[in-house]
Write a structure and sequence with these properties.
By secondary structure, the protein is α/β, with parallel strands linked by helices. 28% of the residues lie in helices and 18% in strands. The chain has 16 helices and 25 strands.
Length: 602
């Protein structure tokens, strides 16, 4: 099974693994074009280039560049042209962003917008398209322009917190017109929306944006990731998880914004966060990285947005005097590594495993609740939760309600929802490859229970559920004791799982008795907990505890015994594993060079 890893290329077909920074000069921040200082810009760009960066993402601050509905400020355009020339002089490229819009904790409207809706007001949409076309016409021929972004985090500009969310059809139509405007202005470089990939498919939250719509219009997709977590492994894999999900839509993935403020992190931990984010997202299919952002803004403390969001002053990879901070050194080392391995000639290795996500994540079925969508995605897990020390491909059942087939093993964790067509596929699928499913009743009390058709037949059990009631997980630590040998683990081996977290509806188990299934493990109270029904050459394995949900709700849970369980299941399934590591804290993956040799990441 192949994992998607398309590279972003130029209009001339050259592969470009861009490593760069989102850019506002320390001489003005979002107001830099009013106070443009070419010499400061030159110094800042030189520092980025000396540390291996190849590009920036730059911004047309909309209120300044478009001061009247039918006028563009030509003096600011001349300053931007100088900005581009300085990029070329240093061997750098940039991606201009048109509608800014939103920036660093504040929305910035042109004075003439009024209360017009950004997506549905025909006149205002026409003004936006005109602005994008005219700015493209001015700069499309400059060699420093590497691509185009329509907006900056449009979901929280077009629908600020507390206001109704935008309509999907309106957003898709707006996006189509904006991209068409870029092409009409002569822009042949790659284009994307700059929306942060925050749509329903990645988050379970419906803001009107859909990755499947964006992928139809865009040449690449760009997640923005600033996660707050309670577990180090989940934090280190958060950006990778966003890239995996985004990459399933068939477009190159650029990690368009990521980073941290040194107000929230020490220098050493900032370096570690960058290192983990860069390498894990690389292995999750990212083909470009643009840090937020190039510099600190101590001199602008009295200027919005820093006046009210003081921590925003210190996201820089250089300080306010232009000195490199630890994240810039990590970017330098990462860029050098990608050059050594010839990243443009590499792809992700194939895999014998797959992770199936419920279509309830990204499909708004009637009479379902937001919690049903938010409960569906498997969380960014520990290194050991990558089955068999090999990252699985993460397909979606939603696209055709047909589950993907894998040669080795398939994981279906933490979902109480399974559409009947998918369930039918699951009953026959294990004839070719083992399937692992962990039970979940959902996380709320509305129609709480397994939304599977024919659960008993699927798993070879008789369940003992009582309508409207649950069987709560009684113990803070759940112990699974193997009844038979499993994948190198001896009978009698114990696996211990933290199980004290979760909602009253989510922290529940499925009472079952075997009816054709073999009991692989029992819990500390002697009840069947892990069961296997053999089907042809394969099998379906059921865990009656929502182990992944419980782990996802538990702070600082990693490393945890899920790694050992997954490793045993992968061994039992005969998953091919060229490289393994016994320590569950160590993640393992590979990139394969086009000449056939492989690079191993540890």
């Amino acid at each position: 099974m192949q994992r998607p890893s398309p590279h972003l290329s130029t209009s001339a077909g050259r592969v470009r693994p861009g490593i760069g920074a989102n850019y506002w000069s320390r001489a003005g921040g979002p107001l830099m074009w009013r106070h443009y200082d070419g010499e400061v810009v030159d110094t800042e760009l030189r520092t980025l280039r000396e540390h291996g960066l190849t590009m920036t993402r730059s911004f047309f601050y909309w209120p300044d560049f478009h001061p009247e509905p039918h006028r563009i400020d030509e003096e600011l355009c001349a300053r931007y042209a100088d900005f581009l020339d300085r990029h070329t002089a240093h061997g750098l490229e940039t991606v201009p962003t048109f509608l800014v819009g939103h920036m660093s904790g504040e929305n910035w409207d042109p004075a003439w917008r009024g209360d017009r809706d950004l997506y549905t007001d025909v006149w205002l949409v026409a003004r936006q398209a005109w602005f994008a076309r005219e700015m493209t016409r001015r700069f499309a021929g400059h060699p420093a322009v590497a691509g185009w972004l329509i907006s900056n985090e449009m979901p929280i500009y077009g629908s600020p917190p507390g206001e109704p969310e935008a309509d999907r059809a309106a957003v898709a139509a707006w996006a189509q017109l904006m991209v068409d405007a870029v092409r009409a202005g002569g822009g042949q470089q790659p284009v994307s929306l700059g929306d942060g990939a925050w749509g329903l498919e990645n988050t379970g939250h419906d803001n009107g944006f859909r990755l499947r719509d964006t992928a139809e219009l865009s040449d690449f997709l760009g997640p923005h990731v600033y996660r707050m977590e309670d577990d180090a492994a989940r934090q280190h894999h958060a950006a990778a998880w966003a890239c995996e999900l985004t990459g399933s839509f068939g477009r190159p993935v650029v990690l368009e914004e990521f980073g941290l403020t040194s107000a929230f992190a020490s220098g050493d931990s900032a370096a570690r966060y960058y290192r983990q984010t860069l390498h894990n997202s690389l292995l999750a299919g990212a083909t470009g990285w643009i840090a937020w952002n190039n510099t600190d803004y101590d001199a602008l403390r009295a200027q919005p947005p820093y006046l009210h969001h003081a921590f925003e002053m210190h996201f820089g990879i250089t300080d306010s005097a232009g000195r490199p901070k630890p994240p810039l050194l990590e970017l330098r080392d990462f860029a050098a590594l990608l050059e050594r391995v010839e990243f443009g000639r590499c792809r992700r290795s194939d895999t014998d495993t797959a992770l199936v996500l419920s279509s309830y994540l990204d499909t708004r079925y009637p009479f379902t609740r937001p919690e049903d969508r938010e409960h569906s995605p498997a969380p960014p897990g520990s290194p050991g939760s990558r089955p068999a020390s090999r990252t699985p491909r993460r397909p979606w059942s939603a696209r055709a309600t047909v589950w993907w087939r894998a040669r080795g093993c398939t994981w279906c964790p933490q979902s109480n929802s399974c559409s009947p067509p998918a369930g039918t596929g699951c009953r026959s699928w294990p004839r070719a490859a083992p399937v692992y499913v962990s039970y979940s009743a959902g996380s709320h009390d509305e129609q709480r229970g397994p939304w599977y058709a024919h659960l008993d037949r699927m798993f070879g059990v008789r369940h003992g559920l009582e309508y409207g009631l649950v069987d709560p997980v009684e113990d803070d630590v759940t112990v699974l004791t193997l009844a038979v040998p499993l994948g190198g683990l001896a009978a009698g081996s114990e696996l211990r799982f933290a199980s004290a977290a979760g909602t009253a509806s989510g922290r529940v188990r499925l009472p079952v008795e075997p009816d054709g299934a073999e009991v692989l493990a029992a819990d500390g109270r002697g009840r069947p907990t892990l069961l296997r029904r053999r089907v042809g050459r394969g099998a379906v394995v059921l865990c009656v505890y929502p182990l992944e949900y419980l782990a996802a709700c538990t702070p600082r849970v990693n490393p945890e015994a899920g790694a050992t369980l997954y490793d045993a299941l992968a061994t039992e399934a005969g998953v091919r594993r060229p490289v393994t590591v016994r320590d569950p804290r160590v993640a393992v993956d590979r990139l394969v060079h086009e000449d056939g040799h492989a690079f191993v990441w540890l």
